[in-house]
## 1
Amino acid sequence: MNKFNKKIPYGVIERLPAYLNCLMQLKKESVTTVSSKRLGRLTGINAAQIRRDLIYFGKFGIRGVGYEVHTLIKKIQDILGADKFHNIVVIGAGNLGAAISNHDGLKNHGFIVKAIFDNNKEKVGREINDIEISDLSDLKKVINEEKIKIGILATPSEAARKSAKALIDEGVRVILNYTSIIIEAPKDVIVYNSDPVSDLLYTLYYFTSKKSM
Amino acid sequence: MNKFNKKIPYGVIERLPAYLNCLMQLKKESVTTVSSKRLGRLTGINAAQIRRDLIYFGKFGIRGVGYEVHTLIKKIQDILGADKFHNIVVIGAGNLGAAISNHDGLKNHGFIVKAIFDNNKEKVGREINDIEISDLSDLKKVINEEKIKIGILATPSEAARKSAKALIDEGVRVILNYTSIIIEAPKDVIVYNSDPVSDLLYTLYYFTSKKSM
DNA sequence: TAGATTGTTAATCGATTAACAATC
DNA sequence: TAGATTGTTAATCGATTAACAATC
């Protein structure tokens, strides 16, 4: 719900991170102002749609000028909740877990990796990106002490279901699932699945038979 | 376009990999038949929608019985083009590149990683998952020799734009972009962006203010 | 003022879902 | 046959986009 008390379409929320990402790159290039037209060209999204999306939340632009990059970043961060810090945990200290833990963007958007868990005793105690790898058996303790609500699942598939259950049982409410296991969760838990194979298969459809996108 | 010569909604194609993934898990559990109702419960997708999605491509079910798992897998693989082998390359031999190259699902769906590229001379010559790491300067040669049309971009952000350009210039037509860099590509190149931060930000919206999904 | 671009409407387009006849 | 579930329709719901007045 927004200030007009209207339900926001999913598509709108899905596009906001894309706008934000684009705006942050523009900011890095010292661009101060951007029109919906330009933002549209950069993100591949229709300019009218960008304006439509934004006015769900307020009038952030200046007619005849465009949007101030800095202001729009603040507004979108505020809408998404990315203006606050969020403690997260990563399950799995393999390549994937390490890649995610090292991701610059997390820090830039206020996500703080509080712990990385693994059940491999050899890895426990080592560090990834200055974060110590903890034993999976300490999951419960850490989640409760740090009041963690967001978890990233980056284990091998075999371990995924058990870890997901542990996260949910301890009160985690958002799970980013990077395994190909299907996670069954109660309605108040948000599970977001991300799988390179699904992404590839999706694009493959449009590729293999030269269907237009 | 399908056999009825009607345009297939994007949403349908997006859901097919989810069905496929679910079906393959069912097959592993030796389930032979599944109803749209059960598939719906497992994937979180409305049963009517599953049936609707599938008949865009043909009548794959048996009234009163459901869908034969094995048959439906074949059909969906055929639709997506996942019944053939596809050579791919991965750019970036860091944690992310390694994680993707090691991903079981790739092999299961016919994707063969032909080469992993990196510009770090120390990594070149080593192996990940039995695939030798090649020097980025050999990209052109490999892509042309192996007629690679699919590339996965898993480099640090700084290197992404240059690598993307190289891929496109040499004829790659599908790019899975795992960096947060925006890639500008001609219309006949399909770029699919996947970024853990965008995924987190999206879920964050529904989480932070207890908005219903 | 002239040019540019937002905010906003309204028309179009596309997606979802309930319902049920067909049929296994 | 009775029960189950698909295939299919049609109504509803939601998303996209062109167009343009408002206004910087």
Note: The first strand of chain B starts at residue 33 and ends at 34.
## 2
Amino acid sequence: MAKKISDRHKQVLKVVQKHNDEYGYAPSYRDICEETEITSTSMVNYYLKQLEEVGYIQREENISRTLSVTEKAKRKYHQLLGITEDFINDMVRSLSVPMVGEIVASEPVPVPAGDIGLQDYENSVDLAASLIPRNADNENLFALEVKGDSMIDAMVNDGDIVIMKPSQEVKNGEMVAVRINEDETTLKYFFKEDDRVRLQPANPTMDPIFVEKSTPIEIQGKVVLVLRQI
Amino acid sequence: MAKKISDRHKQVLKVVQKHNDEYGYAPSYRDICEETEITSTSMVNYYLKQLEEVGYIQREENISRTLSVTEKAKRKYHQLLGITEDFINDMVRSLSVPMVGEIVASEPVPVPAGDIGLQDYENSVDLAASLIPRNADNENLFALEVKGDSMIDAMVNDGDIVIMKPSQEVKNGEMVAVRINEDETTLKYFFKEDDRVRLQPANPTMDPIFVEKSTPIEIQGKVVLVLRQI
DNA sequence: CTTGACACAGAACGAATGTTCGGATAGAAT
DNA sequence: ATTCTATCCGAACATTCGTTCTGTGTCAAG
């Protein structure tokens, strides 16, 4: 195992990445010699073996031109490898959030169980990742379509899409889907007060709901984004 | 020059594309034999020569594993090649809409003049293109941040972002930014009636505004999307 | 001073791989 | 009937290319 990634290692990484980008196929060991100060294919193999061991290179034994730089190496050496923001943006720019169902006041939120896979749902909503707060777990977001006018106090219309993340814990000021008394689901800003919970509508002209501690409420998720297509 | 692209040609195209996708490197001629009903490398060469002639394959002479399917072939045979909408979407998936300013009831909408370039504005909003209606002119969308509570009847909160497109013509049912009597800007669904215009709030519990033809109104843009980050 | 580890080199080898050759078959055109 | 073209095949060959071998030099550690 190499003690550290030397300049020669970095030269090799760079050539592999650059060749794949420019030619659309991997360099041979002899190609790497030509583009670096390495003069023998056994040294190329020596460096590649080490880069492979630390997970920066991928190759297939006894098959020609299979060298590729791994995602791990790209993240660590993106500047060296000439990987632009476009590449980084392409990795994080968009995500598909599964449309798991509908939200209505009369039913609990259909929070998916466990890890959500896109393949489990027929529809999804594509989002630019920059719209999602950094602390949201992008892996487990889900989308619900609002049915009916019962969410108007949340400034959410029939037909709007709410992007949510599963959560039972809430901080003050976060908007939650809360089921009150197993009777009604509503979207409200959540504030914990001394002896009760204040559920504040998004519509500033409407009054909050105060829920005594004796009333069971269930936090069914947090809202991170509302979308209204017109 | 092949008279036409036969099933065998298509098999070869498919294998080249599939191998590149799955393995990250190109197939050899023998790999292609194994994945098709072709039993000799000379026939593979025969088909590749023809595919190269019509511009569907790219390869380098005497260099191993350089086969790739060209963009021309991908566009023509995307279904055969298993090129999903994802590929097509990746080409058009997201767009950046410039944040040109704010919308408040007391000011006209700051509609940008002429073609909008991202470089003219410091901020932008990234959107998945699938959220935008097909008829919207993606080139000229602009974003405005809502200031104040004056758009509540439009179910739009202080801090929300509205995505708009410039437009002076409206169809019934579209949501517009309309300036009434050079006095107030509001977001409403627009309906032209016999002798007046009905501006319908998004909030179904609120009453519409009726504007007589004698009252000057100015359509300052159409709303295509509302975003609320929470 | 000796030893071991690391970096380096050229050469040889064997396998992988693309190209070419000679030939066969079927069908269309003359 | 003959010729031409397209399609097909296996084999051989040449080149490409990855792996291995043997050896050298440098430097740090003991």
Note: Residues 2-3, 6, 8, 38-43, 46, 62-64 of chain B lie near DNA strand D (CB under 10 Å from a C1').
